[in-house]
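Render CoA transferase subunit A in 3D.
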Amino acid sequence: MRKVYPDAREALAGLLRDGMTIMSGGFGLCGIPAVLIEAVRESGAKDLTVVSNNAGIDGVGLGVLLETRQIRKMVSSYVGENQTFAKQYLAGELEIEFNPQGTLAERIRAGGAGIPAFYTKTGVGTEVAKGKPTQEFDGETYVMERGLFADLALVHAYMGDHEGNLVYRRTARNFNPIMATAAKVTVVQVEHLVRPGEFDPDHIITPGVFVKRMIALPADYEKRIEQRTVRKREPAAAGGVA
């Protein structure tokens, strides 16, 4: 089965449609499938439900789909860095399903594991639990959350082989591995495409069985930084270094 495609447009050909649910990996701008998101924008698919920790920033990541109003609903944990998101939500133009971050991660993991629902204490007694079933266990109240499973998952990985086995790099791992398991079709953009056997099998995080299509990113692919934070440089000691 051929998994490697020449570009994002071809990798997503025949997969996109109006009203579908898409999972998009990343945290802030770290580990986002930006090239695949751009191909979704170019497709014109609309009325999308997007599951993602956040919605990028204005003009970057999922922010480009908000600008073109292709997203109808976001299932997210944090959206505070995107002004377009806030404007559309406050104007009643965008539906939001907020989740505590750990609950969102577990909903995705559960969906990938075939678990339709689970109970958690997080959110009990708050707006998060409104309208959801509750149950007592050992004298404590828990709220039921449904697993999440999408039509399509868009994922970013550091390295992948032609069979779809994936390795992630540090914090860019974030939501990508669990989303790769929680969709009918998973499409991945990889920074480094290698031949099978070129990395240690013990390092594989996502087995290739979950991956249907892939693209290799160009060498000049720009990984944007959402907020650059560095330490202030200490002043040099008087008289120089001994």
